[in-house]
Amino acid sequence: MRWGLIGASNIAANHMIGAIRGAGGDIRSVLSADADRAKAYAAEHGIAKGYADLDAMLAADDLDAVYISTTNEKHFPQAMSAIAAGKHVLCEKPLAMSVADAVTMVRAAEAAGLVFGTNHHLRNAGTHLAIRDAVAAGRIGDVLSVRVFHAVYLPPVLQGWRLDNPAAGGGVIPDIVVHDADTVRFHLGEDPVDVVAIDGVSGLGKGVEDSCMSVWTMPSGAMVMAHESFTHAHARTGFEIYGTKGAIVARNVMTQAPVGEILLRSDAGEEALPYSDHNLYLRSLNLFHAAIQGQGRPAADGIDGIKSLAVAAAVAKAAKTGQRTTVDYGGV
């Protein structure tokens, strides 16, 4: 599989280049808005070509797929260009600045017969696969509620547009709420109906929110409480699911690393759930490659990306208006 990187990003450098190559992919080119950065990034990572012009990169007849990791406002036009050029697309979350644009890009890929994936890494983690399996097996009974703790401290290397550029899609809601929405959907197998929310600035945000709390209702009647932040240096992430027969309490699992602990509590006592410590991104890439070959689907496809964005959009609207907000999934 011949790949092009749209975005000379930290996530590509730290996670995706290795995963693409580990899955047997060949990275042929990388795009940056800065030609010098494109060339330097390509040289640093052993990539043959660096481009500053997307059309020129896509016109080169040596790419099967692209991975998009630019700032959020660029995802839609770049994905549409790649789809028009006949390339499979794996895009970072959130897919676009609006649900309507996300629907347009995903439908365009479907019409072109191309595979479209959303790079929601958490559902590839061994911890979350173990949690989902336990829930599906009925080990905690019917789900009553979920609590998500995803308040972290944004590393200095990632501070910048996420904290001060709403036009680029900055803010904790588009950055982290989408992750939590996808993870809740992954475990419960249902989509949030409506939300209430409060956002705020607690030390880092400049023109965007850096903290958010929200409550979601699910079709089953289960309720979800979610907390996201960029400013909590000493917090541990967590994911808790409470059911009629037991509870799953997981700590340090909202992360890119294959770490954390999972406890299952019931009348029988408390036990630690084992999980695989495989590379999250490598699993995602293997599934994406298989989907292109007609075997299965990506770990998170375009519809998953639309739905996680829709929940985040509802949370943002609820926080702004102070009103309970129905999630609009754009007709998907």
Automatic annotation (TrEMBL):
SUPFAM superfamilies for this protein: Glyceraldehyde-3-phosphate dehydrogenase-like, C-terminal domain, NAD(P)-binding Rossmann-fold domains
Domain Gfo/Idh/MocA-like oxidoreductase N-terminal span(s) in chain numbering: 1-120
GO MF annotations in UniProt: nucleotide binding; oxidoreductase activity
Stretches of the chain forming a coiled coil according to its record: none
Residue stretches making up the GFO/IDH/MocA-like oxidoreductase domain: 129-248
Keywords: Oxidoreductase
UniProt KW ATP-binding keyword: no
Origin superkingdom: Bacteria
Name of the protein this chain belongs to: 1,5-anhydro-D-fructose reductase
